[in-house]
Write a structure and sequence with these properties.
42 helices; extended; 6-stranded mixed sheet; disordered N terminus; alpha/beta; 21% strand; single chain
């Protein structure tokens, strides 16, 4: 508003100047300009216009010739208009502006002198710090002073226990110093905003915060700080005091401060000699939302400034006791408080209570008392401030002990108990004390004779406690036992004593002397204000156990079962309840007076008791009558039967003892009926005359009355938008409706039936007749089929009636497609509710307003006995036509809850909104269907839109944002595309991409340098970051410049990192440009197809055959960096180059955006649809990156992507040497020379063809190299490996060797003495030689003497071949040396022979016994050599599968200086016919599956041996 004020204000002043040329108006004009530009409350200047105009128009200022007088008048005017006393106008012809020298500009010596004279530090008794600061030092000055302030002031203050911070004389300072001081008294963990300063001339706002780091030690926020203020305290000092007070960090003591300003300037008014002083900045505290300016800082403790130090000392003395007081109170509560379960919470609360603002003992007591009362919810637990000795203990019950001797007891009973028989045979018992006696039996015997024997035959009993002041509660159980039936057992009460830590239950006595009075007769207990202590407990128990009726006055309420303790050294006392008195329901009595059932004056109590006793005589029959009426007439019979039983049970249990008259009986019956039935409509009420029936004979109105009736009952209107409004306040009988029907149709219905929407106002309709409901409902449904509205069960006739719409009606129906709204209130009742609920239940109307009263369709009023009581009983229930269940009796819950007075407005708003929403939904669908890039996914869209347009929940959504969210979810679910979004943005302004204007070259260079980042990294790796993909048009304009500034610097690099982690925008025409620079010129490659929905066209994107400048080519490594922010066109570029296998993607999965997203306004609304209007289909994958994003080849966090890319490229730089080195090693060392040469040559070919260009890690290089070597050689043993150092030899004990051998070998003896030996690895000869004796003893000896043997090598994966000759030798005779195999070693070019050994450990198996060897596809290496030898020589039959075709144990070679290692088989069995078993395996004699091999071998032997036998 302030921004519009200056033109209007100037216009008014200029108009004034035109009629008067004197200097005063011009002066006012200039003054106004100064205020408008500089006053810190510009919003307040609105009222100044009238003030100035009034001052000028009045002509008063034109008559003032004296300048000083004029200045005073203007001051009064501007202060009055703006209510700001800081604004002053002065006339000073000799004024010379004085510019105070800025402190930071002073020499260091002057600054030190100034600080020493402005700051005073002292340490008082009890280590109380006293810091007086007459100037708040700013940050620049503090910085210039260095450690002087810290070492001499702040660090010394930090060592004190508490602080008096004296700002009484602080009249100067800098606001920049405030945050430091506040931070000094705060903790560093959480920074706090402490102020907001608005500067009007610059129109800027600055926030002040505490600092997380301070140079030096902090004072912290736990030690007490008292700030002293006076009326002289001003400016920055006020900001310090106000902030620390608002943060509850300090207590302010002294006088209200001056109420200065953050910044005030004195300005000359034009060229005159008048000056105006203006506050140009203002402070707003973020905690209070207010300021210390003008009003000052009000002290929490108001004293004269001269007395402030003394007051602060005394206050600190008080505050120093707070921890001790709190601890003492905690100790007392922990030791004595009866509610032990509440103690932990109380103690925790006491320790955490904020007592920072406590300024006196009284204040402390009040605060602690409030907190304890809140947490404990126990009025007995109190803390008070008292200058008297408050320690007191409640009267000890031991005082009421009586002697045990019989004579004393007789005297006691005679004097203590007063027994009389009053008129109407009413017993009267008075005793004024409850006594305690250890001779219980004697006392009971005397009481039986003196008290209960005379009273036993009375009709009622009055127990008079009006003068009973207490005694011992131990006798309560005895007296109460006489008031119950002998057969009954009760728990009367329980006492928990915290001091004794005992719980004592007081039950009815098992046997008593003398007659019991029983529970059937009336017992009336009289009380007065004097009834106290145990007398109160007795009255309380009479009520809680329902033994009698209490009559009289509220008791004294002084029984607390508490002790009061004085806190040492203070005037604070705590009263703690140490006993809990629990009644028979387990409820703890928290003290307070007992409220009688009948409150009368004490002296009238006896008479009142007689009246109540007389009333009580007929009470049982009335309760029985009420139950019988319910059974006969209540609509739900099973509920009625149960409720009737409840009433009788409560009567028998004495629950009606509190009833003293018809009014209280009606109240009690109503409560019991409603509680037990759950039906609030059941009601009992007293009435001196018989209530009139609501349903008398229906009177049909005359012709003359019809018009008046329609005018009185119906109100109609046509609201804007063709909305009908119908109000009627009573449900008329159907015969009346039919009688007035023709005129009603003509004058009412015909006027609203053609409206588009109808509002039915039932807010003032309290009900009436239900007979017309079917007729009224019929008008809102189709004629066929008839609509089931509801079902009525009538208890009085025991009939069930289905209520239907009528087949024929007079007049036109209200079309079912039109919306109907019903307005309700808490007054809407009975038949009006049925009409409302019917239309709501059938989804024909939306109900707006308040929940209805919950009346009944039909209720009968029935007389209870011959009393003045009547019962209102609902005799009909309504069942839903939809669910068949009973309608709730709690009223109709509106669809839209609103105040009744607002419901019509709400309905209008909803109607308008629904129309807009329906139109909106249709328009939104049109936008989607015309623009969505995948029209084939829009099947079912029309049905979804139709459903949404008639969905009440959708149409009822009140705000645009929520509706947009629902529509978004709906369209996303229908189409399965999260990119489709509907938003509500009333302030949205479409962003139009700026066109690049013609710019000079130097500006273009500057733009390119800011948007493109280029670098050459170590290893001649290029780094290029582009955050926006340029389109074809711009690229053509600045192409030559791009070449010079960017591309020509990239071309010489050996590899390129293309950083697209921040690329989130671009032009689709730029895709072919970028991709083409990394592909060959010919042939053109189809890189993408883009379908555009609005134009219904598909554009194929091809790589470009001609480009500006050179291509980067296809051989140099390219890595693209991505992140979750990589979006749109950048994703397309990455996806194309990844699938062309031209680039490696490193980073995070991309955003999954779209090639083109349009944000389209929905008609003339504030709703927008964000829709992907084009889609990309990659011709290589047939898929797209949209929605799902581009998955990186190497997935790492975006911030780690660059380092990972550099690591990958450094590895790729080594790959040629690694592959060349591998090829050389294989050619020189592979066992089969010709194969090795062929593998080496082909491996180099793979390198040349770029097969290794996509390697991203050492692991992937090793995996690929191993796979390629296996493919090229057919040898699984030729592969990469890891140079794992050999484990040091283990020093096994013989026992350990035995266990190891048992695990490594498996032996068995099958049928026909067939041996079975299995081992899964061959060992080194030297290792086996050392333990040969153990192997022979524990393995070989078990099978050596068999008649045939099966050697199972199906799971033997090989090992060293050095032990092969030894193992073979066991299966040949010793008399002949046999050449087993010849082995050719490629590196040395030598051939060696494997021969049988002449000497072995243990006996040989020999060459005569049969041997079968089992093999599988897993049998490899040394195991294959053994199988090969035994097959070649014919010593064994081979059964199973062809072996793995591995090799002799390979040798490990290092590839150059790298950490890549190769396993190269260097030895092969020397044959002239090609590989013996290497690479091809050993073919079995009998090929069977590995699983069947053992069975086959056993069958062969069994058959062979059986044949021999």
């Amino acid at each position: 508003m302030a921004q519009h004020t200056p033109p209007l204000l100037l216009m008014l002043l200029l108009c004034t100047l035109s009629v008067n040329s004197s200097f005063q108006p011009a002066l006012v004009l200039e003054m106004a300009n100064i205020l408008l530009e500089n006053y810190c409350f510009p919003e307040n200047l609105v009222g100044m216009q009238d003030a100035i105009q009034q001052a000028i128009n009045s002509g008063e200022i034109l008559q003032i010739s004296d300048r000083k007088t004029l200045a005073s008048v203007l001051t009064a005017g501007v202060q009055g208009a703006l209510n700001d006393p800081r604004l002053t106008v002065s006339y000073e012809p000799n004024f010379v502006p004085v510019m105070p020298k800025m402190l930071p500009s002073l020499p260091i010596e002057q600054l030190v002198w100034l600080v020493r004279n402005s700051v005073k530090l002292d340490v008082l008794d009890n280590n109380i710090g006293y810091l007086r600061m007459d100037r708040i030092i700013g940050v620049e000055t503090a910085a210039k002073l260095g450690s002087l302030l810290r070492d001499n002031i702040w660090d010394k203050v930090a060592q004190t226990n508490s602080l008096i911070f004296d700002l009484r004389y602080s009249t100067a300072g800098e606001l920049s110093g405030v945050p430091f001081i506040i931070s000094y008294f705060s903790d560093p963990e959480h920074i706090i905003q402490i102020d907001t300063v608005y500067d009007r001339p610059s129109n800027t706002t600055r926030e002040l915060w505490t600092s997380p780091i301070l140079n030096g030690e902090r004072y912290g926020k736990k030690k007490d700080v008292i700030i002293l203020t006076s009326k002289r305290t001003v400016g920055a000092a006020e900001a310090v005091a106000y902030t620390l007070k608002s943060l509850k960090r300090a207590i302010t003591v002294g006088e209200r401060s001056a109420g200065g300003s953050v910044k005030v300037q004195k300005m000359r008014i034009a060229q005159s000699e008048f000056y105006i002083t203006v506050p140009v900045a203002r402070s707003v505290n973020p905690i209070t939302g207010q300021s210390w300016e003008v009003s000052g800082v009000s002290p929490m403790v108001n004293v004269n400034a001269k007395e402030a130090v003394a007051k602060a000392k005394s206050l600190l003395a008080v505050r120093s006791t707070i921890p001790k007081v709190v601890q003492s109170i905690s100790n007392i509560i922990e030791r004595f408080y009866a509610f032990t379960d509440r103690v932990p919470a109380l103690l925790q609360h006491l320790q955490s209570t904020d007592l920072i603002s406590v300024v006196s003992e009284e204040d402390l007591a009040v605060r602690l008392n409030q907190d304890l009362q809140t947490v404990s919810e126990d009025p007995r637990l109190t803390i008070k401030y008292t200058e008297d000795d408050a320690a007191r203990v409640e009267e000890d019950s031991e005082l009421y002990n009586v002697p045990d001797d019989m004579e004393s007891l007789k005297v006691l009973v005679d004097t203590m108990f007063k027994v009389e028989i009053l008129p109407h045979n009413t017993g009267y018992l008075r005793f004024d004390t409850f006594v305690k006696s250890s001779a219980v039996a004697k006392l009971e015997e005397l009481m039986a004779k003196k008290v209960w024997e005379p009273l036993k035959d009375t009709n009622n009993l009055i127990i008079d406690l009006r003068y009973n002041t207490g005694g011992s509660f131990t006798s309560l159980a005895l007296i109460l036992s006489y008031l119950q039936d002998a057969s009954q057992k009760h728990n009367f009460f329980t006492i928990y004593d915290r001091i004794q830590n005992t719980t004592t239950e007081y039950d009815s006595l098992s046997s008593i002397t003398g007659p019991t009075y029983g529970s059937k007769r009336g017992v009336y207990v009289l009380t007065s204000y004097y009834t106290a202590s145990v007398g109160e407990e007795f009255a309380y128990l009479i009520q809680s156990i329902h033994f009698g009726t209490v009559i009289g006055e509220i008791t004294s309420g002084n029984l607390m079962h508490s002790k009061t303790f004085q806190i040492d050294g203070t005037n604070i006392a705590i009263t703690v309840p140490f006993i809990n008195f629990l009644d028979n329901n387990g409820e703890c009595w928290l003290g307070g007076g007992v409220v009688p059932d009948a409150i009368v004056l004490a002296e009238e109590a006896v008479e009142q008791a007689h009246e109540i006793a007389n009333f009580y005589q007929g009470l049982g029959s009335l309760i029985k009558d009420a139950g019988e009426l319910l059974e006969k007439y209540y609509a739900i019979n099973e509920v009625a039967l149960e409720v009737s039983k409840v009433l009788l049970r409560k009567w028998a249990e004495g629950m009606y003892r509190s009833v003293v008259d018809f009014e209280s009986l009606a109240s009690q019956l109503t409560a019991d009926l409603q509680e037990s039935s759950g039906d609030h409509r059941l009601h009992v009420f007293p009435c001196d005359v018989e209530p009139e029936s609501l349903h008398d004979i229906i009177k049909i109105p005359t012709t003359e009355e019809v018009g008046y009736m329609i005018e009185a009952l119906f109100k109609i209107d046509i609201l804007p938008g063709n909305v009908g409004y119908l109000r009627f306040d009573m449900m008329a009988d159907v015969e009346v409706v039919k009688a007035i029907g023709p005129q009603l149709i003509t004058s009412v219905w015909s006027r609203i039936v053609t409206t588009d929407t109808l509002i039915i106002d039932m807010r003032y309709n309290t009900g009436g007749y239900s007979t017309a409901i079917p007729l009224l409902c019929t008008y809102f449904f189709y004629d066929e089929p008839l609509q089931h509205l509801y079902t009525v069960f009538d208890r009085t006739t025991a009939t069930m009636t289905e209520v239907m719409t009528l087949s024929q009606i007079t007049g036109q129906r209200y079309e079912s497609s039109k919306d109907v709204y019903i307005l309700t209130s808490h007054m809407t009742g009975s038949a009006a509710e049925v009409f409302t609920r019917t239309l709501k239940d059938l989804n024909r109307a939306t109900v707006i307003g308040e929940p209805t009263i919950g009346g009944s369709l039909s209720s009968g009023t029935y007389h209870i006995g011959d009393s003045i009581l009547y019962a209102s009983i609902p005799n009909q229930v309504v069942l839903s036509a939809i669910t068949g269940k009973l309608w709730s009796i709690s009223g109709v819950e509106p669809n839209v809850i609103a105040q009744a007075s607002d419901s019509l407005t709400v309905a209008k708003r909803i109607i308008a909104a629904r129309k807009l929403k329906r139109d909106l939904i249709v328009d939104m669908a049109t936008v989607v269907m015309n623009n969505y890039c995948s029209p084939e996914k829009l099947a079912g869209m029309k049905e979804a839109i139709d459903a949404a347009g008639s969905n009440t929940e959708v149409l009822n959504i009140p705000d645009g944002e929520s509706l947009a969210n629902v529509l978004s979810a709906g369209v996303q679910t229908t189409v399965s595309d999260l990119r489709l979004k509907v938003t509500y943005e009333p302030n949205y302004v479409p962003v139009v991409a700026p066109q690049m204007p013609p710019l000079p070259p130097e500006q273009l260079v500057a733009i390119l340098q800011t948007s493109i980042k280029l670098d050459i990294l170590d290893g001649n790796i290029g780094y290029l970051r582009i955050d926006h993909i340029l389109g074809e048009e711009i690229a053509d304009k600045i192409g030559h410049m791009l070449l010079d500034l960017v591309w020509n610097k990239i071309l010489p690099t050996s590899a390129l990192i293309f950083d697209m982690r921040y690329t989130s925008s671009g032009d689709i025409s730029g895709i072919p440009y970028i991709v083409s620079y990394f592909t060959q010129a010919e042939p053109a490659i189809h890189i993408d197809s883009v379908y555009d929905r609005p134009s219904n066209t598909t554009t194929k994107l091809f790589s470009m055959t001609t480009l500006l400048g050179e291509r980067y080519g296809i051989t140099k490594p390219l890595v693209i960096l991505t992140s979750k922010n990589t979006n749109g066109i950048a994703e397309d570029v990455a996806y194309c180059l990844q699938n062309l296998k031209r680039a490696t993607i490193v980073g995070e999965k991309t955003a999954g955006g779209s090639v083109k997203i349009d944000k389209i306004k929905v008609a003339d609304t504030d709703f927008y649809v964000t829709v992907p209007s084009a889609k990309s289909i990659n011709p290589i994958t047939g898929s797209t990156w949209e929605v799902t994003g581009v998955t990186p080849d190497v997935e790492v966090n975006a911030e780690d992507a660059l380092a990972t890319a550099i690591k990958i490229l450094n590895l790729r730089a080594q790959i040629p040497a690694i592959i060349e080195g591998s090829a050389t090693l294989i050619a020189d060392n592979y066992a089969f020379e010709d194969i090795g040469a062929d593998v080496a040559e082909k491996l180099k070919g793979l390198l040349a063809n770029g097969e290794y260009s996509m390697v991203v890690s050492k692991a992937s290089l090793e995996a690929k190299l191993s796979a390629d070597l296996k493919t090229l050689s057919g040898d699984k043993s030729l592969k990469t490996t890891h140079n794992t150092p050999a484990l040091p030899p283990m020093d096994y004990s013989p026992e350990m060797y035995i266990e190891l051998i048992k695990v490594s070998f498996h032996t068995d003896i099958f049928e026909n003495n067939i041996g079975y030996l299995r081992f899964d690895m061959f060992g080194d000869f030297e290792e086996v030689k050392a333990i040969a004796q153990i192997i022979v003893e524990h393995v070989w000896s078990k099978v050596a003497n068999t008649d045939a043997m099966i050697v199972d090598l199906r799971n033997n994966v090989g090992g060293p071949t050095t032990a092969i000759s030894g193992f073979c030798s066991y299966f040949f005779d010793a008399d002949k040396e046999i050449v087993l195999d010849k082995l050719y070693d490629r590196p040395s070019g030598t051939t060696s022979e494997l021969k049988t050994l002449p000497e072995l450990t243990g006996e040989r198996y020999g060459s005569k016994k049969s041997l079968i060897i089992l093999t599988s596809g897993a049998t490899s290496g040394a195991a294959e050599e053994f199988v090969y030898i035994m097959k070649k020589i014919g010593r064994a039959m081979i059964v199973g599968e062809t072996t793995a075709g591995a090799s002799h144990p390979p040798q490990t070679f290092s590839v150059g200086e790298t950490d890549i290692f190769l396993d190269i088989p260097t030895v092969h069995s020397d044959t002239s016919t090609g590989p013996a078993w290497e690479r091809v395996g050993v073919t079995p004699h009998i090929p069977v599956s590995a699983e069947a091999a053992l069975g086959t071998a056993k069958a062969i032997f069994n058959k062979h041996i059986a044949g021999q036998k």
